[in-house]
Amino acid sequence: MRCSSRPPQAATDWRPPGAGAAFLHNLFSGRCRLCQARSLHQPLCAGCREDLPWISAACRRCGLPLASGEPLCAGCRAAPPPFQRTHALWTYGDGVDALIRSFKLHEDLAAGRLLAGLAAEALQQRRIRCRGPLVPMPLHARRYRHRGFNQSALIARWLGPPVAASLVERHRATPPQRGQTAADRHANLHDAFRVRGRPPSALTLVDDVLTTGASLSAVAGCLRRSGVRHIEVITLARAI
Questions:
Q1: pTM (2 decimals)?
Q2: What is the pLDDT of residues 89-99, one digit of tens each?
Q3: pLDDT tens digits for 154-165?
Q4: Where are the domains of the chain?
Q5: Coil, strand or helix: which one is 56?
Q6: Which of 15, 133, 152, 221 is a plausible cystine mate for 164, CB 3.0–4.6 Å?
């Protein structure tokens, strides 16, 4: 999936953002990343790729998997989020969770690039075109210095262009969201983001995992107050 007319890179056409030993080992090991079976030409064997927890039917608004076939979940009918649509590729489990944790917490850029490549292929096959530039979920400067990279910005770069990486700033440091209730997550993010410059009328937010939607809603609300009329979301995984 590209916002431009150029076709997306295939999942195997990797252009590593770094040349660390861990990245090269993961890239050229010849083993499936999940089951360790021999897989000389793909980072995932055919079986593991097929068994990924793909989302086929979901709430149009928040990406929550739905077995009913309804376009919206009960939560979004009662209180719709400030974004119009969510494209979530997988549920957060069955191997996808391990790859995302390895990417985000252990600097395993190969795992992130693998998932972004698979996501790009799936979005293209589904004929999904992003609205406007890709805007990654921002990290506070302190968290960025600690982690060394913004995983959402890398995903957006691998999916894009165009990417508007500096459009939204996380100017207030907040406690980690993990382990908090949905209400606490929303309160935690009050006034944590601000828009820099004049935003476009439509754009697509990018994140790695959508859990309660508190962070994405906070960013989307900030953008809507700045004049953005249409906001979509692309996330690798959706927690259920």
A1: 0.84
A2: 999 999 999 99
A3: 999 999 889 999
A4: 54-238
A5: coil
A6: 133
